[in-house]
């Protein structure tokens, strides 16, 4: 560390800089009082007549009422998807199929401001993230898979790829629209039809997506959306008319689904939890690495399956790194998700806030040292200050369990071998990050880390062309890229 750096790191963080509010206009959005289920191209009432409120987690204000799908509704949706598959969708030419996907992608781009506002309102994430990450990436997935629709024979030569039929897709609340795009785009590109179950707390962008399907004149029944709690997801998993289940969510529910499907012959992909290590070597460009640490764990309030929630720092730079990190944390702005200056928005639900709070308490009790920058939490809504734990042992719950919140655990290592050992010491294996200036070390580490994705000198970088998925308890199967087509196809391998 140079003298100048030392002086910079010790100088007080400018705290008197008030940012004028810069709220995104909410009036771009018109919400209905109540939404039905999207089945066979129409919004229909649920059989039970049951609805539940969906709220804005930053204010706890209700936004709209959403239908609770029962078994009979899920059955109707699966039948609509089967009908659409057998009577049209599987027969149209792949190039025609691609046109629908391109159309959806373009409409998503055209309506991106409206969707970004809705995603932030219903999920609590900062508007700059929904505007700059969720929306562009969702559209990019549709564009990308539109390109594959008429090239499946080239993607899998001599294997005669064929659509599998009806895909049941269950998605979580952390990236509602993006997860929808990850699931629906490849399924449709391969010629399948879908029934999608969004998460209970964040159903609204999926219901607005139903409107995009109508706008794109997608044949009725190709996409069906059933809202509701876990019971609707369970009914979809159990339904005999579904040929494949794609699930993203907790490892616990993923395991239950795997047990349920054992022996049924249904295809399954699981994208589950993670406890990624973000590994900083002493030759890394430290200021960039600190930005990568912040992006790795505080992006989307840490509600990210591949979040860099365990920071492994080489011992020789431990103090400098932690000092720089704490200083950077003081500059993060927490508050109104619709304000363009906000870095950290609201926690998605009361349930998630309770889970984070409980795990943070366990960290304190087990002996870790907590740091939270001075920051005022709004009175209403669900909030958690960005948190760093130092003095963490590998056996602590905060170093082992997925917190899914803005909480970082810092550990140290001396040698690359020790870094690998500690990074792999988890039942998960979704992602990892390596920060070093040595290319050979990056390759050596990437080879040894048991993680589906290894980022080098960056973190949380996504691209539709790049496959994503896990090892061990993080699941199996890949989404994105050519690999992401495979789970939606059956093959008749040529002799
Ligand atoms: P879940 O795994 O419960 O939810 C994921 C999706 O599955 C939701 O749509 C959910 O519906 C649905 N679901 C719930 N139970 C069943 C079931 N028995 N059969 C089929 N589908 C079901 O995650 P939670 O939202 O409860 O979050 C709990 C924890 O999981 C978090 O704290 C976090 O640690 C982790 N998580 C990990 C994610 C990841 O991407 N890896 C994403 C989300 C959570 P509903 O919303 O109604 O419960």
Mean pLDDT: 96
Number of domains: 2
Percent strand equals: 15-25%
SS element count, helices: 16
Content-based structural category:
alpha/beta
CATH H-tier superfamily of the largest domain? Aldehyde Dehydrogenase, Chain A, domain 1
| Gap between N and C termini | 63 Å
| CATH topology term of the largest domain | Aldehyde Dehydrogenase, Chain A, domain 1
Sequence of strands across the biggest β-sheet: 14-15-16-13-12-17-18
Taking the sheet with the most strands, its summary is: 7 strands, mixed
Number of strands: 20
Please state the CA-atom Rg, rounded to the nearest Å.
23 Å
User: Could you estimate the helical fraction of the residues in percent?
Assistant: 25-40%
The ligands found in this model are: NADPH dihydro-nicotinamide-adenine-dinucleotide phosphate
Runs in which pLDDT lies below 50 for 5 or more consecutive residues are none
Written description of the protein model:
This protein has 495 residues and is of the alpha/beta class. It has 2 domains: 26-272 and 474-491, Aldehyde Dehydrogenase, Chain A, domain 1 (3-Layer(aba) Sandwich); 277-463, Aldehyde Dehydrogenase, Chain A, domain 2 (3-Layer(aba) Sandwich). It contains 16 helices and 20 strands. The protein has helices spanning 3-10, 71-89, 94-110, 112-123, 127-148, 152-155, 176-189, 204-215, 230-238, 251-261, 286-298, 318-329, 350-366, 397-400, 416-423, 439-448; strands at residues 34-35, 37-39, 42-44, 51-56, 61-67, 161-163, 166-170, 193-197, 223-225, 244-248, 267-271, 277-280, 310-314, 369-371, 387-390, 407-413, 431-435, 453-456, 475-476, 489-491. A 7-stranded mixed beta sheet has the order 14-15-16-13-12-17-18, sandwiched between helices. α7 (176-189) links the parallel β7 and β8 (193-197). α3 (94-110) packs antiparallel against α5 (127-148). It binds NADPH dihydro-nicotinamide-adenine-dinucleotide phosphate (NDP).
């Amino acid at each position: 560390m140079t003298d100048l750096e030392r002086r910079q790191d010790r100088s007080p963080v400018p705290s008197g800089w008030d940012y004028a509010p810069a709220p995104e206009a909410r009036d771009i959005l018109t919400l209905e009082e109540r939404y039905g289920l999207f089945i066979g191209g129409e919004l229909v009432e649920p059989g039970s007549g049951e609805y539940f409120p969906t709220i804005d987690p930053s204010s706890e204000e209700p936004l709209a009422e959403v239908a609770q799908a029962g078994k009979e509704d899920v059955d109707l949706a699966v039948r609509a998807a089967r009908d659409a598959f057998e009577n049209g969708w599987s027969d149209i030419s792949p190039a025609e199929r691609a046109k629908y996907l391109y159309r959806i992608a373009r409409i998503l781009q055209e309506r991106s401001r409206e969707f970004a506002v809705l995603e932030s309102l219903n999920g609590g994430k900062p508007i700059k993230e929904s505007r700059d990450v969720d929306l562009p990436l969702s559209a990019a997935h549709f564009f990308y898979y539109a390109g594959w629709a008429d090239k499946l024979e080239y993607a899998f030569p001599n294997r005669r790829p064929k659509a599998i039929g009806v895909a049941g897709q269950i998605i979580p609340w952390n990236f509602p629209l993006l997860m929808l795009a990850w699931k629906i785009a490849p399924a449709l590109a391969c010629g399948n039809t879908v029934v999608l179950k969004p998460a209970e707390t964040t159903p609204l962008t999926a219901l607005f997506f139903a409107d995009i399907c109508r706008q794109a004149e997608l044949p009725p029944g190709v996409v069906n959306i059933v809202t509701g709690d876990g019971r609707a997801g369970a009914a979809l998993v159990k339904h005999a008319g579904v040929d494949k289940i794609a699930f993203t969510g907790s490892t616990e529910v993923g395991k239950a689904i795997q047990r349920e499907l054992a022996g049924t012959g249904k295809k399954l992909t699981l994208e589950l939890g993670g406890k990624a290590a973000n590994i900083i070597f002493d030759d890394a460009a430290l200021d960039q690495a600190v930005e990568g640490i912040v992006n790795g764990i505080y992006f989307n309030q840490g509600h990210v399956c591949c979040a860099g929630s365990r920071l492994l720092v080489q011992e020789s730079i431990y103090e400098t790194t932690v000092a720089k990190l704490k200083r950077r944390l003081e500059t993060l702005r927490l508050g109104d998700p619709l304000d363009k200056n906000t870095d950290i928005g609201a926690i998605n639900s009361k349930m998630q806030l309770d889970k984070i709070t409980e795990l943070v308490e366990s960290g304190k009790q087990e002996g870790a040292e907590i740091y939270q920058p001075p920051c005022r939490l709004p009175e209403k809504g669900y909030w958690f200050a960005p948190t760093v734990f130092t003095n963490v042992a590998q056996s602590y719950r905060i170093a082992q369990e997925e917190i899914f919140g803005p909480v970082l655990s810092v550990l140290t290592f001396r040698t690359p071998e020790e870094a690998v050992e500690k990074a792999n010491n988890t039942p998960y294996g979704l992602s990892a990050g390596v920060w070093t200036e040595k290319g050979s070390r990056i390759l050596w580490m990437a080879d040894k880390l048991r993680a589906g994705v290894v980022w080098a000198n960056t973190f949380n970088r996504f691209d539709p062309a790049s496959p994503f998925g896990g090892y061990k308890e993080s699941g199996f199967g890949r989404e994105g890229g050519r690999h992401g087509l495979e789970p939606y196809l059956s093959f008749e391998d040529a002799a």
